[in-house]
Design brief:
Elements (H helix, E strand, L loop, with lengths): L5 H7 L5 E4 L3 E4 L4 E3 L4 H9 L1 H51 L10 H10 L9 H24 L4 E9 L5 E9 L9 E10 L4 H14 L7 E5 L4 H7 L9
Helix pairs in contact: 3-5, 6-7
């Protein structure tokens, strides 16, 4: 009967740390030494020896510790990522709430407001300043709102409502609203703010340009615009006369 090969012994004693080296030698990975593969008794005596058992415990303990460290690092990175994501969502939600409630973001810079947040809202102590919120997070929310409104007006019949006023700096502010008319899917009309633009001059050309830019931005098909409504200001009458808004016809 031919003696067992190193490969056969390695397969039989795999769980005891045996493997084949250079296709012909039987090695013990725990003891890092060659073992005679021709005699089974030699292998049995090796794995029963205290030295082998101690080496095995040491190697397995080191492997377990390494695996635990890797899991700990992975968990720490995952936790850090979640903390960052949660913080970003908290900031965005705070800005969204203030904007929707028409509360100036500057209120968040008030010491009493900061003190209240720090006491009752865990993790809010490092809330960015109002200027940072306006520069970074308001544009992000605007992008989300734009996508939301595009979906709301897609394929729907709408009425474009617009009006002009002045802000505290005396600038002309042009407001455009979209009123989505009732349909089979949604039996009630819905009103959305589409744009708020600062005009250089409150005239027919500026107003018609603001309306056109808003309609194009939200990808509203011209055939879906049922009507355009505003007040009876002279320049708005001129807008609707067809001279300035001819591209919508």
């Amino acid at each position: 009967m031919a003696p067992a090969t190193a490969a056969a012994r390695a397969l039989a004693y795999h769980d005891d740390g045996m493997y084949v080296f250079d296709k012909k030698f039987l090695m013990c990975k725990f003891c890092d030494k060659r073992v005679d593969h021709e005699r089974k008794s030699t292998i049995d005596n090796h794995i029963k020896a205290d030295l082998h058992k101690n080496n095995r415990k040491k190697v397995e303990a080191e492997a377990a510790a390494k695996k635990k460290r890797q899991a700990s690092i992975s968990e720490s990175m995952s936790n850090a990522k979640k903390v960052k994501e949660d913080r970003e969502e908290f900031i965005k939600s705070t800005v969204r709430a203030f904007v929707n409630a028409n509360i100036p973001l500057e209120k968040l810079d008030k010491p009493e407001m900061r003190k209240w947040f720090k006491k009752y809202v865990p993790g809010s102590g490092d809330l960015p300043s109002a200027q940072q919120l306006r520069d970074k997070y308001v544009p992000l929310l605007k992008e989300e709102y734009d996508d939301y409104l595009k979906d709301k007006v897609k394929g729907k019949k709408i009425v474009v409502l617009c009006d002009e006023t002045t802000n505290r700096r005396g600038q002309a502010v042009f407001l455009t609203l979209f009123k989505v008319l009732p349909s089979k899917e949604n039996p009630t009309s819905q009103l959305f703010v589409a744009s708020v633009k600062i005009l250089e001059n409150a005239n027919a050309d500026e107003c018609s340009k603001a309306i056109l830019q808003t309609v194009q931005h939200y990808e509203v098909a011209h055939l879906n615009i049922v009507a355009i409504g505003s007040d009876s200001a002279a320049y708005m009458v001129f807008v609707f006369s067809g001279h300035s808004l001819i591209i919508l016809v």
